[in-house]
Amino acid sequence: EVYEELIPPDRALLQQLTPDEIGHIFHASVNLNGDAIVDFVRSLCELAIDETSSKHPRVYALGKIVEVASFNMDRIRFIWARVWQVLSDFFVTVGCSPNLHISMTVVDSLRQLAIKFLSRTELSNYSFQNEFLRPFVVVMRQSPDVEIRELIIRCVSQMVQARVEHIKSGWKSMFMVFTTAAADEKSQIVVLAFQTIERIIREHFHYIIETDTVAFTDCVNCLVAFTNSEAGSEVCLNALAFLRFCALKLAEGALGDLEETAATEKQLATDGVVESTPTKTTVATTCFTDADAHTYFWFPLLAGLSELTFDPRSEIRTSALEVLFDTLKFHGGSFASGFWKRVYDRILFPIFDHVRADIAPEHRTNGDENDAPAVADIDDWLYGTCTRCLELVVDLAVQFHEPIVEAGVMPELLDLLRGLTSRAHEQLAACGVVAFKRLLVHGAAAMRAKEWALCMDALKGAFEATAPDFSVFDGNIGEDQTEANACLVRIKTQLLLVSAARDLSTEHASAREHFNADTLYILLDTLESVYVRVAESPFTMRDIGASDIPRIVRDAKPFALALEVGSASIALRALARLQEDTSERMPQLIRVSQAAMNNYLTLFKIQTGADLREDARVRAQVCVDALDAVRALSQDDFKTHLPAVYPLFTELIRCEGSSCELSNAL
User: Fold this and answer.
1) What is the dihedral of CA 39, 41, 43, 47, to 10 degrees?
2) Residue 255 contacts residue 302 (beta carbons within 8 Å)
3) Helix (H, G, I), strand (E, B) or coil at 659
4) End-to-end CA gap in the chain
5) Lowest CB count within 10 Å: 226, 416, 455, 583, which one?
6) Which residues partner with 335 through β-bridges?
7) What are the average pLDDT values for consecutive 10-residue runs of the chain, which has 666 residues?
8) Considering only CA atoms, which of 488, 611, 633, 496 is closest in space to residue 544?
């Protein structure tokens, strides 16, 4: 209302003013008080908006805005913040002007002011540089013109080259500009931005981490954004390489306050304020704990790499996996147990959340042709990435066994493996079994009795969770074979678990040397229960030679027979070898041997077709293992149990057409 009451000067009076006299008005703005300079700048911005948006745009007022801002830049921070709030809104508004010439002029004017402002050293605990450069970020996000976005990138590059030693909080806005550029739809913007960030990291990385350690996290987040760019694999792979470089610098303790934080925590532990956790340091000079000061820097980097393990591009996925686990493997020696706990809970375990939630049988058997690409992507992830990722997660648990066990990660890791193993997805279950075996075999030397008990309980739980229900094959299966397919997957999974048990108990002497008696006994009891469950099922005695037998039944029978034979043979061989040290498990040896011979005799008596004759030939090998196990008994033990097995021997002798191996064993 006050402005509306003002009467413009007479035209004749205005014509008498010289340019120098008009310019003096703007020079004298430094003499205005706080409220007056804010009002003056606001009026000047309104005039500039009118000029730049007119039919014949001018930039006179825009030039004077730059002058007034330059003259008043030395005002106290409170007043200058009010002035810049007005100017910031103006630069954002006019910077997104549809007139390309005007918007480019505005961005260039903002660059001039920024370079002058950055020539001043920013005081500690202030972040006005970040506020000053924010218009670049907003215009970068909102401008529809490629030329403007490209100009902003070049302006930021020039500011870094000219004022890098003075940049502190300004790094945040600069990295936000590059992060925005990483998601740009124009590939030339993405490439230009990455070339700029690449040069900054190569030439000025020490300024980034020395002037403001928070900028390191902004830098990491910026690089993670480039790894997700669709501009081409070259940019993504190079961004991953720089993330590896950042991890190296972080592990070396290059960030200024990490050593100070470690020293502070050590003093707190000495004073009894916090609990001290001894940790072996192998690579880095800084011991990283679960303190927020440490996780603040590490976890954006690790989480970004973890997310990339699901990238649809195979080369990016593989490279991210390599960088993530190389980082953990090479620098894990400097991680305390609490830090490892967070790594597994927040970085590694979540990788498999998508698999456990999304890959289910109903997603793969609905017959929708449109789902074929998605299914192919899932299979590609399973065959390529999931298996490798599980192996690497297990390898970390083996390499850094002590701090990881201390962190309480082992039960969760075993739950993960057991959960994957029990899934009704064949490839996923196979991944879980392979990783389970890798943990038990490679980690045997480091495991103590408590860890072995956990592992055996998990293995036993996996067997129980995947126990097949053979009754689904007895009735009329019909067209819906969902249950039958699920049962077949369970049979195959149990067969893989039996194979893992064989490797533990017979093949890998290094693992077996670290077994205690309880560990082996749990394994033997589990194998016996598997054998009894399969052997007592009528399905294994079923003749599938008839033409009306469903295909799923024909497919399942050989796997079920292999499961029966495999579990019995492994148990019998392990029990026979155990007799050399103790006779504690002799009743179990006799019990399993009797069951094996009885099963063979039952099948031999009812065999009618070629299929059952082949089954009898396969079961004959279990009889051979049973006879070998009985022969492993001492003379006194043999005499003690001879009444129980001798009748079976005589019945076996009466069987005509037995295999040569069985005849020789008898």
Assistant:
1) 180
2) no
3) coil
4) 116
5) 583
6) 288
7) 60 71 80 91 92 88 90 89 93 92 93 90 78 94 94 94 90 94 93 94 87 82 92 90 91 64 43 40 61 86 89 87 93 91 92 65 44 52 75 93 93 92 85 90 86 91 92 75 88 93 69 71 92 88 71 87 93 88 87 92 72 78 92 89 91 82 87
8) 611
Burial of 356 (0-12, 13-18, 19+ CB in 10 A): middle
What is the identity of the amino acid at 388?
R
What does the alpha-carbon distance between residue 489 and residue 469 come to, in Å, rounded to a whole number? 11
Per-residue CA distances from 251 to 255, 258, 334, 341, 584 (Å): 9, 10, 8, 18, 52
**Of residues 52, 39, 87, the one with CA closest to residue 67:** 87
- CB-based burial of residue 570 (10 Å sphere; 0-12 exposed, 13-18 middle, 19+ buried)? buried
CA distance 520 to 580: 14
| Cβ pair 439, 417 in contact under 8 A | yes
Question: Residues near 508 by Cβ (< 8 Å), separated by ≥ 6?
Answer: 441, 444
- With a CB cutoff of 8 Å and minimum separation 6, the contacts of 282 are 333, 334
350/608 Cα distance (integer angstroms): 54
Which residue is listed with tokens 């990722």?
389
Q: How far apart are CA 500 and CA 523, in angstroms?
A: 11
pTM of the model: 0.79
Q: Are 31 and 75 in contact (CB under 8 A)?
A: no
Angle, CA of 253, 256 and 259, to the nearest 5°: 55
Strand, coil or helix: 335: strand
For residue range 275-291, list pLDDT tens digits in order: 444 433 334 457 888 88
Nearest-angstrom CA–CA distance, 402 and 336: 10
Q: How is residue 345 annotated by DSSP?
A: I
Tell me the backbone φ, ψ of residue 288, rounded to 5 degrees.
-90, 125
Neighbours of 440 (CB within 10 A): 26
Task: Collapse the DSSP code of 287 into the 3-class scheme (helix H, G, I; strand E, B; otherwise coil) and give the result.
Answer: coil
- Nearest by Cα to 656 from 596, 625, 629, 616: 616
Report how far apart, in Å, the C-alpha atoms of 393 and of each of 322, 436, 438, 496, 529 are. Answer: 12, 11, 11, 20, 31
Cβ pair 459, 526 in contact under 8 A = yes
Which residues, other chains included, contact 69 with Cβ-Cβ below 8 Å and sequence gap of 6+? 41, 83, 87, 113
DSSP string, 395-464: HHHHHTHHHHHHTT-HHHHHHHHHHHHTSS-HHHHHHHHHHHHHHHHHTGGG--HHHHHHHHHHHHHHHH
